[in-house]
Amino acid sequence: MKIPSADTPLYNHPLPVIEQWLRDHGCQQKKEPLNCWDVSRSQWQAELSLEVEVLSVRYFQAGDNGDDVVRSFPYSLSREDVEAAIFSGP
User: Which end of the chain is more exposed for a tag (fewer CB within 10 A), N or C?
Assistant: First the structure.
């Protein structure tokens, strides 16, 4: 399956391509629920969730007071923009 160009909105990517893209960035799919993925970096840990209308990210204990930081990205954003926003960290 050919991956669309990086400037293509996520809603134009087939689900298997999005899943491979997440794997390529070191994300690991959870067994339950299958729409959730874990990602760890040296400075932060997060959970990604492929929701109906958005891709949500919860960065654990990333707030100033140790709270989780949650961000949501609509599928109308390009893969390139979502990638830059998510993987740069909280």
Answer: N
